[in-house]
Amino acid sequence: MWPRLSPPLLTIAIFISNVYAHGGIAKFTVDGKQYKGIAPWEGDSPSPNNGPIRQVATNGPVKDLKSADIACGLDAQFAGGVADAKPGSALVFEWGNIGSKDGAWPHNVGPIMTYMALCKGSCTKFNGTDAQWFKIDQLGQKKDGTWYQGDLMAGKPITLSLPTDLPSGDYLLRHEIIALHLAESVGGAEFYPNCIQMRVTGGGSSTKQPDNTVSFPGAYKANDPGIRINASSLGLPQFY
Ligand SMILES: *[C@@H]1O[C@H](CO)[C@@H](O)[C@H](O)[C@H]1NC(C)=O
Ligand SMILES: *[C@@H]1O[C@H](CO)[C@@H](O)[C@H](O)[C@H]1NC(C)=O
Ligand SMILES: [Cu+2]
User: Which principal EC class is assigned to this enzyme (predicted)?
Assistant: First the structure.
């Protein structure tokens, strides 16, 4: 039998579920090799972190687009490792609602963006705020109006490939969910950027940067039409 919650307790329970209705990358796989995300809010505290995924401080979102956190996530730390890849590598991203252990990602509205930037020197000491990012992928809505982000909520991974013409080099990969469920007011959108340190071999030796690069902070503004948006006016069946 379920315990009956008195109204004050009910309020607290709802409050807590809001606080923890966030998450991060649970697993990242490149060409079959899997790396685990680091979730300090789940008790993970690898020290040193020899994996390629930069550890963030909490499972919460970045809200301030002027903060350095928009580059790689809340108080993102350098990681000690790099993930080996090649042009065209198959990437798999699994997200979790980390707060309920091994739970699914909790939101289903808003795009998933993936950027890369050449590290100047080793990625293990390269700050994402100094990067010139180019976008390699974006996943928005499907034909039926639902968002690819909903696949993560259903426990499914997001898959994509590195560009096939990517030159060799050390890169930061910036994989980001923009959750728009509260985005009807300025500052309501939730940003969940994650950075992964990669070494690409077997590509060309060009060091020419793509023409269109952006910086974080800088690329997004709180009033951008895709950032301040009433996503429920898009007529979605369920909305979180
Ligand atoms: C990256 O630079 C920002 C802005 O200067 C700083 O706040 C942050 O601590 C730096 N990150 C690391 C891991 O040093
Ligand atoms: C957002 O859109 C929904 C559906 O069209 C509407 O009911 C709601 O009032 C809108 N919210 C705001 C803040 O405009
Ligand atoms: Cu959230």
Answer: oxidoreductase
Instruction: Please give the model's pTM, rounded to 2 decimal places.
Output: 0.90
Name the one residue in this structure whose structure tokens are 């995924």: 53
pLDDT confidence tier of residue 54, bands split at 50, 70 and 90? very high
H/E element, 197 = strand 190-200
The CA distance from 39 to 21, in Å, is: 14
Q: Are 83 and 52 spatial neighbours (Cβ–Cβ below 8 Å)? A: yes
Per the document, the length of the chain is: 240
CB 193 within 8 A of CB 56: no
Ligand 1 and 129: CB distance under 6 A: yes
Q: What is the pLDDT of residues 165-200, one digit of tens each?
A: 999 999 999 999 999 999 999 999 999 999 999 999
Q: Which residue of 180, 228, 230 sits with most ligand 2 atoms within 8 Å of its CB, as the best mutation to test the pocket?
A: 230
Tokens matching residue 46: 């690898």
Rounded to whole angstroms, how far apart are CA atoms 39 and 63? Answer: 19
User: On the CB side of 77, how many CA atoms lie within 13 Å of its CA?
Assistant: 18
All domains in the chain, ordered by first residue = 23-200 (2.70.50.70)
User: What tokens were used for 79?
Assistant: 């990681």
36/203 Cα distance (integer angstroms): 26
Pocket test for ligand 2, best of 228, 232, 234 (most atoms within 8 A of CB): 232
